[in-house]
Write a structure and sequence with these properties.
By secondary structure, the chain is an alpha+beta fold. It has five helices and 14 strands. It folds into three domains: about 60 residues; about 130 residues, no CATH class; about 120 residues, Glucose Permease (Domain IIA).
Length: about 325
């Protein structure tokens, strides 16, 4: 059987330049098949290329959203850090206020001298009760699982302290804890306010402010004596200030002593009642007299360097029933 062929004639405008091509039908079919396959490959490649373009555009959008979310996360984390710092300051302020006003303590002089003592069965400091009652992290795992790649750490087992990554899980635990702390602090402050409202007279005569402007140069406790260089007990705090800086009364009271004592120089003492006495030494001038009643923020003396002093400063003491205690417990504005 003769094979079927096709002849193609190609002519030009010039005479005698005609060419013919004879191709079998099988080759034509093979060429058409290859052309169809090539076309399909090209179409598939074009579709895939368009898909890659779309995916690239989506990736760019997701990257932009990721950068935005990271910035938002940093903002939230910064605000949370600020909130935790504020809560810590409120807690310290509340503790100090309870300490100096005898709220919840039976023996005021003992608590002021050595700090608050936990009651029977009490392991946590004031303001922290109830933190163990918060639910475990598993309670909000289901609610927040869409944001988490792994289960959050359980704060009750101390897992948060081992977590170094900054992710949504750890941030959720910190926020949950801050909310719990805020509720507890609010309850504690309201209770403290109600108690202090009933003890207004006690609050008025309780030292609570810094007696002069200046900077602390020596704290309460053992230190090296500036003259002998031997360790001695320092019964107060030293506040350095320019000579003549006003010294004010930190609470209401009666001036119980005005005079000169060896080592202390010009000395003023104020009896605030309830066994609380404050002393102010090394003054350059004294503006009050023995037996005079003074109110909080009244000017009583001026900073100087009289007595055994290495420079102008105020030596400030607080004594409870004659026992020196740390005056920093009575400075709420620091």
């Amino acid at each position: 059987m003769e094979k079927k062929t096709y002849t193609f004639l190609v002519t030009t405008n010039r005479r005698g330049q005609t060419q013919s091509f004879t191709i079998s039908a099988a080759w034509i079919k093979a060429g058409l098949f290859l052309g169809l396959v090539f076309s399909l490959i090209m179409v598939a490649a074009a579709v895939d290329y368009v898909g890659l373009l779309l995916q690239s555009s989506e990736n760019k959008r997701l990257k932009a959203e990721n950068v935005y979310l990271k910035r938002q996360f940093q903002v939230v984390e910064t605000k949370l850090n600020s909130l935790e710092g504020a809560l810590e300051r409120v807690q310290n302020f509340s503790k100090k206020l309870k300490l100096i006003t005898n709220v919840g303590e039976e023996d005021r002089s003992l608590s002021l001298a050595i700090g608050p003592m936990p009651k029977a069965g009490q392991n946590l400091p004031a303001g922290q009760q109830g933190l163990e009652e918060r639910g475990p992290a598993s309670e909000f795992l289901i609610r927040d699982s869409v944001f988490m790649q792994r289960p959050p750490l359980d704060e009750m087992r101390g897992e948060l302290s081992l977590q170094g990554a900054r992710d949504y899980a750890s941030l959720s635990i910190r926020i949950d804890r801050a909310v719990q702390d805020t509720q507890l602090k609010e309850q504690g402050i309201l209770q403290l306010w109600e108690t202090l409202s009933e003890r207004q007279s006690l609050l008025n005569v309780t030292p609570s402010i810094k007696p002069t402007r200046g900077w602390f140069t020596s704290r309460f406790g053992y230190r090296l004596d500036p003259f002998t260089r031997r360790p001695v007990m320092h019964h107060g705090i030293d506040i350095a200030a320019p000579p003549g800086t006003p010294i004010i009364a930190p609470a209401d009271g009666v001036v119980s002593y005005v005079g000169f004592e060896a080592g202390y120089g010009k000395l003023v003492s104020i009896d605030h009642g309830y066994g609380v006495v404050t002393r102010y030494a090394h003054n350059s001038r004294i503006f009050v007299e023995r037996g005079q009643r003074v109110s909080r923020r009244d000017v009583i003396a001026a900073v100087g360097s009289t007595g055994r002093s290495s420079g102008p400063h105020l030596h400030y003491e607080v004594r409870i029933h004659g026992v020196p205690v740390d005056p920093m417990n009575y400075i709420l504005d620091e």
